Amino acid sequence: MASNLETGASVSPELEYAEKPEGPVSAAILAAGVGAFALGVLTTLAEASEGLKQLLNLYDPVGPLSGKTVGAVIVWLVAWAVLHVMYRGKAIETRKALTASLILIGLGVLGTFPIFFQAFAAE
User: What stretches pass through the bilayer (predicted)?
Assistant: First the structure.
């Protein structure tokens, strides 16, 4: 089979795509950062407060990790819903959302390092 270039036929014109706002994409990216940050905060707070640690113990074999992860997922879903509604139909620069999300993820990861959260241990 001969290609369009070999037969001399014209190549189809470029397809035109409708501009879509990047707000929902930015909302999802930011929500991921917020969820990761929430996990770090909950981990650190659970170490600082014995009462919160007991409150986060939703399932004894897992311990407070069960409440930390459930809490972080709830924060992530709520953040995603709220940010989606706020940014729906808006032109938000995805690069800025990614930068903010990476900073939040970095802080969230920091909050889950034992050397960090143990510094806040309740005496």
Answer: 25-45, 65-85, 97-121
**Own/partner long-range contacts of 31-34 (Cβ < 8 Å, ≥24 apart):** 31/76, 31/77, 31/79, 31/80, 31/83, 31/84, 32/76, 32/101, 32/105, 33/100, 33/101, 33/102, 33/103, 33/104, 33/105, 33/108, 34/75, 34/76, 34/79, 34/104
Q: State pTM to two decimals.
A: 0.82
| pLDDT score recorded for residue 73 | 98
Beta bridge pairs of residue 63: 59
Tokens representing residue 43 in the block: 């981990």
- Percent above pLDDT 70 for the chain: 87
